Structure to design on (152 residues):
């Protein structure tokens, strides 16, 4: 039996694993809820509310929690949309970071967006503005929105 340590060890650094994050994709009245990131990665860019999945938490639970923490909006996480692998590489092409982000379709319940936690701003945007790329956004936001619209 292998014991799991929650602290970073030298073995962890030698055998890194991807970090899992949840993205809350909330559609409401032909609009999508986005946040402008306050911190790196993607500081200043618009994207879906989200963040790390905590130990013992499902991705669906993480999406709802992160949404509420970053925007004050409450939604019910319904289903998975897609998985996004984001690899950060150095100049030599070596992987420096690896995130597996899981897009989660969330049904709006209540609340008006107010930026908090890791968000600089939070607001609703018309679908078309996002789909045509008329906003400085994180990678693959329009693609994930289009997938969510097909599921809606």
């Amino acid at each position: 039996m292998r014991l799991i340590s929650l602290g970073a060890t030298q073995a962890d650094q030698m055998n890194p694993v991807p970090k899992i994050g949840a993205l809350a994709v909330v559609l409401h009245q032909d609009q999508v809820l986005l946040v402008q990131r306050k911190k790196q990665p993607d500081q200043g860019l618009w994207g879906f509310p989200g963040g790390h999945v905590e130990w013992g938490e499902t991705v669906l639970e993480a999406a709802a929690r992160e949404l509420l923490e970053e925007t004050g909006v409450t939604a019910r996480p319904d289903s998975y949309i897609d998985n996004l692998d984001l690899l950060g590489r150095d100049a030599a092409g070596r992987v420096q970071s690896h995130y597996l982000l899981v897009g989660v379709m969330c049904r709006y319940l209540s609340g008006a967006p107010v930026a908090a936690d890791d968000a600089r701003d939070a607001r609703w945007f018309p679908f078309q503005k996002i789909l045509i790329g008329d906003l400085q956004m994180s990678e693959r936001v329009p693609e994930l929105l289009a997938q969510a619209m097909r599921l809606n």
In short: Confidence is low (pLDDT under 50) at residues 1-12.
